[in-house]
What does this fold into?
Amino acid sequence: MRPQAKPQKIWSNLPAFAPQASATDHLSVANVRGWRVREPVSGRRYTVLRLETRDGLVGYGEGGPATAAEIGDAKAAAVGRRPNENEIIRHRLAARPAMEAAINCAFLDLLGKWTKTPVYQFLGGPTRFKARVLAQLEGQTEDDLATPLQRAVQQGFKAFMVPIPGRDSLWRMQAYVDAVRARVARVRSLADADLDFVLDAAGTLTPGDAALLATALEKNHLLWFDEPTTVLTNDGLARIADESVMPIGLGRSVTDIATFQNLLRWGSIDLLRPSLGLNSISKIKRMAAIAETHYVAVAPYHDGGPIATAAGIHLAASLPNFFIQQIPFPTAERDAAMRTELTSGNQEVAKDGFAPLANRPGFGIEVDERALDRYSEERV
Amino acid sequence: MKRREMLGALAAASGLRGSPARNPAIGCGCAFAPASAIPPGSEVFKDVGSKLRITDMKVYGVTLDEKIARADRPYVFVKLETNQGLVGWGEATLEGKAGAAMACVNDLRDFIVGSDPMQSEHLYQLMYIGSFYRGGPVLGSAISGIDQAIWDIRGKFLGMPVYELLGGPVDPRGVRGYYHAAAWSLEEARALRDQTRQAGVTALKFQLPDLLEWVETNRKLTRAVKHMEMLREGLGPDIDFAVDFHARPSPTVAAIILREIEPFHLFFAEEICPPENMRAMQRAARKSTTPLATGERLIAAYGCNDLIDLGIVDVLQPDIAHVGGITALWKVAAAADAAGIRMAPHACEGPVGGIASLHVDAAIPNFLAQEICGLVEAGEMNRVWEDLMGFSAMRMVGGRYPLPTKPGLGFEVSEAALKKYPFQGTRPFPPAFHEDGSLASL
It folds into this structure.
């Protein structure tokens, strides 16, 4: 376990406390390339960046969807930087959250590959030896959901995120509550294993309706009720938190740490749901540190690709207050095939509800650039 | 049976390795060998952890001559040894409680010896949450010493200084610092100004002139205000100066002083009242425009949470030797950063904790300045530090501490030098009294 460039030699020429020169100087980023990737059937989009260092080491990072111009901004921020300089990147790319996520991810990949160490060792070492995973099912009706649910159960998943039914504005609220109850009962009956569910409102409800629904479903013991509303104000969220004991997950569109700190301060949130596509691993570590002092768990949202999933499992390993990692579970065969083609060492698998940690250098996966070419809308 | 024989018999009876008499200076009969080869719960990490293992933990009490350092603050250093030859150093110095801190480090031994030091977060949780009785300065300091040593090993193993592991450096020129200072007349303040400028130092910290009661007289209130007025006049407009109230006033008295010193533009006012009751501190804080700082007595990120969420302070000052080491100091800094609060970590211990602080300082964007208990002019204490560390530790160059460049924390403590300063036992903080004999907050 020694870095290739024998950095000790550099240090021995320096006085003990000389500034600036770093053992990672040769890891300065020389070039950045990007793929704007799209899943063929679901249309799910994300960005993959390829960072190459001065001495030819390559690291990959994934972030949410981005324009070619944003990828250019990411390149401008990263070139010449060493892969440990995450704090500078976090500030340089604060207005480009998807790119901040991607660069940080690639930086960590570079550090892991350089030292031949899994990334979780850079993040504070493993706090757990496997990470609980949540399959995000696609589908609008219970019949849509049935097949993918059963397939996911066969593949070892034990927790699932299912959407609430769509609501017609003429539908009486009590009838709608009954429909949601019926959906929960139906998905629970689809497989007889010991399964758990997250109910996803995708931000479609008012705080008042969300509070009513959350209270009505309390005794179903869902893992939590996700993103009930987009109204992330203190008084709006207080209605839900005050009326119900249903755990509330929030924050898939949040990109700044202070928003989560405010939600925690007001007791509005039971699970932090920062999206892996919009927040770097390093930024989520900061969010998690704040959540820890409020006894609140972190369950990263993920609606991107398999590289970010792998990164998310390394993050999960390192967080003491991690609960579960969401993984998209495409219904379409072509989408599923794409996810396995992009990387080898696929981490989107579960055994008894948990993903194993990859004790391999970097994120423990190999990225297939030809597959990225095949599935990309644009190369930058 | 004599004590030493009894300890030997205990060790023989339980078949434990290691010498229980290794730390006789602590003076307690605690067993110092682990109960099992690996810490509880660690077997499940065999496939995901590193091959690195902590093989031994040593704790050193270091007493300096009373002319150099007060008797209440012997340094407590922790050394971890590994199966791959890497060693780590940390500092658990706790003023007035050296013996308790050393004993507490040893109380945590079963969690540490046999563990994988790459699991810094897990081991932190094991020591903090696994201790059941959470927090408190004794446990906080013991965790701090061990945590710093674990990070030292982590950095050495990964071949990088700790600040690079933490995402830094934010500013490669180094870490801004301030020294302690005293000036009791305008002439002294002017001389200090010249000396400070010449050294390239940009910030200083002073004490209040008096002990204070919970309601104060015109004489003492006026003296406090006049003292700071004199300091600003003597130091000139360009040197940042802070004043450490050291929790002497009540919020009632602090509010009056803070109101009247606003024109002197302090760097910050520190510990304006005792730290246990944060809402009480808020009473005075609400009325002040002078930046307020506190935090040296707070343990873990949990201990700092209310200060941050209630928006009481502008500057947080946890001490890396008490708050819970690098792990906890970084977590506090993350929460403070999101709330727009800056960090000026306290450090009134030895050189190991000081340098460990520099690593966190260098990696956080909301850093303000690093304390060290030294003066603008290097003194006898700095000679001892040079003896211990092999270089002039925690001395600024041009107002900044240069960043360490070696992997880990970037130094080795000379064990030969440590032997020159054997542990002489603990003394409590010297108490101070008001003129009627009642106890004062010092």
Notes: Chain A has 14 helices and 15 strands. The longest helix of chain A spans residues 97-115.
